[in-house]
Amino acid sequence: MDPLRSYLGRLLLEDVTPVVMVLTTPLAEAACRKSGLSFVDMLSPFSLFKKIDVPVRTASDQPYRLQQFKIRMVYASDVRKQDCEVADARIKLVVSEANEKALPDLLSDPPQLKDVLNKPEAELCPLWIKKFNRELIRTLSFSDHETFDHPVACLLVVSSKDKEPISKFADLFNANQLPPLLNEGIMDPQILKHYLVLHEQQDGPQEIAVNILAEMRTTLGLNDCKLLSINSSTQADGSDADNSWSTYKAHGLHNHEGTCFLNMDDLNEIKDFMQDFASNHIIPYMEQKIRVLNQQVATTRKGFRNQIKNLWWRKRDDVPEAANGPMYTFTSIESQIRVLSDYAFMLRDYELALSNYRLLSTDYKLDKAWKRFAGVQEMSGLCYFMLDQSRKDAEYCMENAFTTYLRIGSSGQRNATRCGLWWAEMLKTRGQHREASTVYFRISNEEPSLHSAVLLEQAACCYLLSSPRMLRKYGFHLILAGNSYYLSDQKQHAVRAYRNALFVYKQNPWSYINNHVHFNVGRWYGVLGIFDVAIKHLLEVIACSHQSLTTQSMFLNDFFHFVQSTGEKFDVYKLQLPVFNMSSLRVVNEDHRTYASNADVDVNESIWQELEEELIPSSSVVRTNWLDTQPKSSPFRNNKACVCVAGEAVKLNVELKNPLQISVNVSGISLICQLSTNLNASETGALTTAAEEDIASTKPSISTFESDGNNFTVSKLDIVLGGGETKRIQLEVTPKVIGILKLVGIRWTLSDSVVGYQYFEVATQKKNKKGKRGARRSLNTNLIVIKGLPKLTGYIECLPTKAFTGDLQLLTLNLRNQSEHAVKNIKMKISHPRFVIPGDSSDLDLEFPQCLRKHVQSDSNTVSEGTKENVKGSLFAFPQGIKIQGGTTFSWPLWFHAATPGNFSLYLSLYYEMESTTDIPYRTLRMHYNVEVLPSLDVSFAISMCSSRLQEYIVRMDVINKTPSDSFALNQLSCVGTKWAVSTLPSRDSISFVETIPANQAVSCFFKIKDLSTSSCIEAADGSCGSDIVLSPGGSTDVFDVSRTPITDFHYQERHQQGKLAKVPRGLLDFILISKAVAVNSSKSEQLLSHHTCHCSALSQNPVWWLMEGPRTITHDFSKSCCEANIQLVIHNSSEHNTTVRVVTSDCMAEKSQTAPSHESASGQGGWHDVSLENDIKAIASTKGTHSQKQSSESISPFVWCSLSSAQVDLKPDSSAKIPLKVCIFAPGTYNFSTYELHWKVHSSESGHVDENVTSGGGQGYPFYVNVLQGA
Q1: Which pLDDT does position 305 carry in this prediction?
Q2: pLDDT for 811
Q3: What predicted TM-score, i.e. pTM, was given to this entire model?
Q4: CA atoms of 804 and 715, how far apart (whole Å)
């Protein structure tokens, strides 16, 4: 881009121009004031020459032509350094005027991203910002280290009415009236002087003025004197007067008093005067000045010799450090070079200006005149820019100047700002907007808040224009600018800056800065009195959960303050306080499905459907329902709508949360509903689709939906939500008439000030492909209201929420019919019959637990042996004749048993039919309870076969109390059924020492159990052994009958859980341990616990049992012969199949099976010994004979089997056989006749399959010790 056509080029052409100092007499100034203008204001519009076309020749011989030129007309009194406060006040006035004009724009909608990106560069920054930049630059006019503001010429003006005008010219240029910079020697007083006589046509003929002009030319010079006539118009307020100068208003010719005596002839004369003054006087004078100065510089400074001389002279003495360096007068060579450079720059000979700026920068750097050095660096950068040469050198010069100004301190701060403004414009011209924004940000740090705000806004615009666009930085710098505007009391500008940044943070999760923007915009709108917009923005931040408590309080207080300032309640759509979780919405409408409590509604529908599969009539199982029985014209055939009953509340569960840390008061929470009594099917469909879409898209006002008390009633709820609290509430609407009920939304009032409302949005999915579902609604808000129906309500009385494992209780199911009509055919389905089973009607009058003791006779509750396997199922039908009349309560007993520890959910569904004809023939009542079962006693059994007797077992019962603080007392142990008997071990007649088991303690008890089904069991014949054993001391009368319901019912439920009854092998047994909780408070009722352990078996699962029978002590005289002992081996087949058993005896077995006395253990006598005493030895013939007998017996076995060495027997299931055996003993001693082995093989039968683990096997003989004594 051509630098001259850029904004910076135009700025330099208009601001870095020659200055003409104006001196006027009072009469001359008064003549101009008649038209409402000063003399300078009158000439200023004509000081810009766009087509002057003047040839210029400076230092070179080659001339060039100026097409555009401008001179600045300045009063002599204004040629001085400007006061900072006055300059800042003028700048503030520019911003304030724009601030007042910005208010109408603030009432429009904030700009959107698309609109901002499509704006041209010229519209992004307001036009007044450019005016601000120019005013900021002009605050540095007439500085002492720069000369382009020094006057080039002086225009002296007198009136034709002045007496002695020639002497007036001399008086005007008096030293007392000249600027201080001229008197101090900083500016050159020898400047071009031009003299002007101002004549008013209204004062008389022009001859007087012509005579004065002639006298002036004689005295002051022929070419330097001019005559100017003004105020030729006779009509001050005429149309001719307005039209004469209206075309020059754009150039600054503003008539503030509304009168003007200048006509077109006057304006043309002024224009001609300014044209002549510029082209024939100022430009030639500057050309001549440049040539003279250039010759002086060339003579004294240019050339190698002059450069070395200058360098040596400046290095001669150390120059003290100073901001401005040494004082330079206008006669110094440095000042002359600066004048030469600035004149060349103003006449656009940029190469000459640049060469002299570079020459001068070396001098200032050596002199440490840093401010002057920065000034020439700044102008060097502008020369590079105007020449469109090295960008790198231009940026280096501007960077060097900028940093040098800042290094100086406060005196160079404003110069750094000007340098930064020119530098930024230079970068913007070259498309380097990102770098320009950095420069704006740097200079903003050096300026007061008002100036900083404007600079930051320009930096933001540069980020938006950069490539790629940097939206985040754009928004951030606008926020910084808005904050600075607010600190400078420019609230309209602050709002405008923040509003322009809204679209940046609208779609981003930067919550803190988003809250900051909306809160401040809302607050500032409120200060400006625009409360509706203020409330709109504050609504965006009142639900800021991430803010601190103090910030939340501030947001909320300001919001309510502006709401109260309006004097009315606001209706706010989607008010975010509190936050309604629309995904948690649940409409509870009871058709044929009713619920006992609100918690039952949250249960998954599939659970209820699975539970009710056998409960409801078979017609419903084949995927039909009562709606199919309706006529095709009936509105009930509309499957898209749900059904509710007139007079019964439709409930809506929703979760709301207070995101703040402050408690908020929410009142009047209710549903927004519509009820149409027109049941036309086509209109119903229209309501479910078109109406929903219309509400979702148009968002009608809350006043559109008014409560209709004749057709329905809605509940209203008032709550106080604590900080961060979440509540789930239930809203109700009760239709009174049949029709179509539409749930539209929710309304509520926040702190009695703001009415919030939100409509239910319906999410639909269109059918796009074949096979996919069509429109699906996330929330069905259309309900068909039908006539009233009978309804049962119910609850389980005394059902515990926490119980110990094994806890057994009698409960009551209470049902109440709230309608006027009776219900019949009642059935019940229970999800966990292991925990809850229905009782009999007679159980209601029982006293628990006394009813379970054996002394209580009740044949109806005793389960016979033949019916044990008929376990109560989960489906229960009440007696056929039972009906629940309207307004009555019906009760039925239930038994509860806490089977296993953990948390379980109990589901119970009741089916009942209507006695009268209704739209729905049946209904169900659904109940749901959560029970936590705590660990109590952990019971385990270990069973070992008795080696001394068949069909007897030793049982070890291990009981661990797993509670942390409760104790339990053991009451009784029972074997289920009549086959088994339990008793104490023979060594102990009682175990009364086991009274209670404290917390975290364990106990082990030993018992003996017998199989009463064997014919050899003596206890079975005399009845001395039973299936129950009392564990509590003196509790023989406190025995509970485990064969009675509900204990036996729960026991067989446990058998089903621990292993199916049909697959249980024979020979296994079950135990029931009954205990009682030790109550800390004696007034508490007795708590009974039953622990069921099923499918217990012996540790050894061999199908064959055997036992050796015979004498234990034998006396024989071995001096006569050896001893023969007759024994027999009893073998029993305990399996369900035919078994072959083979017995093999052996004379020599391992020595470890023999037991010898200690005094023979080291003699190597094998495993046997002589038990004779000394007196027994006397009976033998001689000691020697005895000794020789032992010597000879070392090589033979102490006993031998003299019967068959092998025998085989076939046994049928559950049968026994005895095999006779004979042993020959050679010497007295103690012998273990276990040197035999058994081998068996189980044969499969048609009745069942044999387990592979027990098909065949074998075993060593059990120890059988016999004492053989020496007889007399």
Answers
A1: 63
A2: 92
A3: 0.65
A4: 41
Fold designation for 937-986+993-1012+1024-1099: Immunoglobulin-like (2.60.40)
Burial class (CB in 10 A: 0-12, 13-18, 19+), 776: exposed
Would you state the pLDDT for residue 665? 93
Q: What does the domain layout of the chain look like in residue ranges?
A: 1-81+151-233+259-293, 88-134+445-508, 509-564, 569-589+648-678+708-760+779-788, 937-986+993-1012+1024-1099, 1101-1147+1196-1271
Instruction: Identify the burial level of 676 via C-beta atoms within 10 angstroms of its C-beta, where 0-12 means exposed, 13-18 middle and 19 or more buried.
Output: middle
Dist CA 1245 CA 562 (whole Å): 95
Q: Would you mind telling me the total number of residues written for the chain in this entry?
A: 1272
User: Which among 447, 518, 536 is positioned nearest to 487, based on CA atoms?
Assistant: 447
Predicted pLDDT at 1121: 85
Position of tokens 């010898």? 1156
Query: Could you write out the DSSP letters of every residue in 1175-1233?
Result: HHHHTSS-HHHHHHHHHHHTTS-SEEE-S-SEEEEEE-TTEEEEEEEEEEE-S-EEEE-
The domains spanning 1-81+151-233+259-293 and 569-589+648-678+708-760+779-788 adopt the same CATH topology: no
For residue 1154, the model assigns a pLDDT of 40
- Tell how strand 754-759 and strand 570-573 pair up: parallel
Residue in 770, 769, 744, 637 with CA at minimum distance from that of residue 692: 744
CA–CA gap between residue 363 and residue 314 (Å, rounded) = 8
Instruction: State how far Cα 702 lies from the chain centre.
Output: 31
Report pLDDT for 236: 60
Question: Which has the closest alpha carbon to 1250: 1075, 1099, 1065?
Answer: 1065
Task: Copy the structure tokens of residue 396.
Answer: 């280096």
Question: Hey, which CATH number is domain 1101-1147+1196-1271, 3.30.1490.480, 3.20.20.450, 1.10.20.10, 2.60.40.10?
Answer: 2.60.40.10
The domain defined by 569-589+648-678+708-760+779-788 folds into Immunoglobulin-like (2.60.40)
| CA neighbor of 593 nearest in space, from 134, 910, 242 | 910
Token pair in block for residue 85: 């406060």
Query: CB count, 10 Å around CB of 313?
Result: 10
Do 1127 and 1223 contact (CB within 8 A), yes or no?
A: yes
Instruction: Report in angstroms the alpha-carbon separations of 884 from 21, 349, 838, 917.
Output: 115, 114, 18, 16
Query: Given this model, what pLDDT does residue 1181 score?
Result: 37
Candidates 3.30.450, 3.40.50, 3.30.1490, 3.30.110; CATH matching 1-81+151-233+259-293: 3.40.50
For the chain, what is the total number of helices (H) and then of strands (E)? 34, 50
Helices (H), 466-587: 471-487, 491-506, 511-527, 531-538, 549-566
The whole-number pLDDT of residue 306 equals 61
Q: Hey, what amino acid is at 1179?
A: A
Q: Which residues of the chain have pLDDT under 50?
A: 237-242, 250, 316, 319, 620-627, 633, 635, 681-692, 696, 704, 764-778, 858-860, 863-871, 989-992, 1015, 1020-1021, 1062-1064, 1066-1067, 1149-1194
User: Which of 9, 817, 16 lies closest to 342 in space, CA to CA?
Assistant: 16
**Integer Cα distance of 576 and 570 in angstroms:** 14
- pLDDT for the residue numbered 186: 82
Say if residues 443 and 420 touch (Cβ distance below 8 Å).
yes
For 726-768, the DSSP string reads: EEEEEEEEEE-SSEEEEEEEEEEEETTTEEEEEEPPPP-----
Which tokens hold the place of 275?
A: 């044209």
Residue with tokens 């008064």: 30
Contact between 1104 and 1238 (Cβ < 8 Å):
yes
Largest CA distance in the chain: 197
Please report where in the chains the tokens 């399996």 appear, as a residue: 1135
User: Residue 437: its pLDDT value, please?
Assistant: 93
**CB–CB of 1009/975 below 8 Å?**
yes
- pLDDT number for residue 276: 92
